[in-house]
Description:
The chain is of the alpha/beta class and 342 residues long. It folds into 2 domains: 8-212, inorganic pyrophosphatase (n-terminal core); 217-341, Diaminopimelate Epimerase, Chain A, domain 1, CATH 3.10.310. The strands form 2 sheets. It has a 6-stranded parallel β-sheet, sandwiched between helices. A 6-stranded mixed β-sheet has the order 7-8-9-10-12-11. Helix 2 runs antiparallel to helix 6. It has helices spanning 8-20, 34-49, 82-91, 110-115, 145-155, 164-176, 188-199, 204-212, 217-229, 246-251, 297-304, 322-336; strands at residues 23-27, 53-58, 76-77, 94-98, 119-124, 135-138, 231-234, 239-244, 274-280, 285-291, 307-309, 313-318. Helix content is 39%, strand content 18%. The structure holds guanosine-5'-monophosphate and manganese (II) ion.
Amino acid sequence: xxxxxxxxxxxxxxxxxxxxxxxxxxxxxxxxxxxxxxxxxxxxxxxxxxxxxxxxxxxxxxxxxxxxxxxxxxxxxxxxxxxxxxxxxxxxxxxxxxxxxxxxxxxxxxxxxxxxxxxxxxxxxxxxxxxxxxxxxxxxxxxxxxxxxxxxxxxxxxxxxxxxxxxxxxxxxxxxxxxxxxxxxxxxxxxxxxxxxxxxxxxxxxxxxxxxxxxxxxxxxxxxxxxxxxxxxxxxxxxxxxxxxxxxxxxxxxxxxxxxxxxxxxxxxxxxxxxxxxxxxxxxxxxxxxxxxxxxxxxxxxxxxxxxxxxxxxxxxxxxxxxxxxxxxxxxxxxxxxxxxx
Length: 342
Ligand code: 5GP
Ligand code: MN
């Protein structure tokens, strides 16, 4: 038996809305990752089993390495199908907001979702949720939104409706948000859930291969270049800094998602506990931060890089140049590094 993490009242409210209405939209954060897509698709397949009209509407397309997930082709992306996205949101009676905690994270879709009269249900695991939903299921202690979706479906006594496609989507997000169960993944209950998902038919080895062993040559060379030529270690603070200019991205024919995971690599160096990766975009610098232990990079992202996230994995969008972003990181680093001796 899993512990009852989601409050009874929230389970009741979610089930009530699902029973009452027919037209559902599911949305997640911009640049959707494995957990955003997994939790969206997990809910999608569940609601389909209940014969609901359901559409996933996202700001951006799914990245290449997640295109194989069943149902991805049904996703409406606001970037290229703006009118259809608006229609779906306007017809929705219930909108699930998954894997994000503040409207800003929906990107350009923010206003249509906020202006919609649909009932909104948040299912998320980021700290400090904004209260813009009618039902807020927010559990920052849980390692992925996919795990929360699984828990919610079970608490609604619908675990029999979790089919293989649903289970595979949920497993994928649980795997990607924990670095294939290498961090945030010490909970025994996580593995009870995985066992259940395997019983539903998930092929975990195949999921791993599809997600982590499907890189392009350009991506691998870009990662190699970034580490060989662009990684600066600030050893006195156990920190690493990597930045990539627009020109460098062009040189490797950078495609969305190509530097996924790059920011984690320096943490594999002994003594490195904090890593930042800055990627130059046309109007801003995309910031990715990772840390180990007590170094709260979400606070750094919030205070200095117009972002947020989790204690050990955060990001933001900095309005300024690469050089300015680098300088800020170097300047504020000492404020965040404490117990270097472990
Ligand atoms: P990544 O570095 O993989 O892009 O993001 C890591 C985590 O940081 C995400 O799961 C998300 O929680 C958070 N994050 C990334 N970018 C942003 C941002 O622009 N704003 C906020 N609030 N959080 C972000
Ligand atoms: Mn997540």
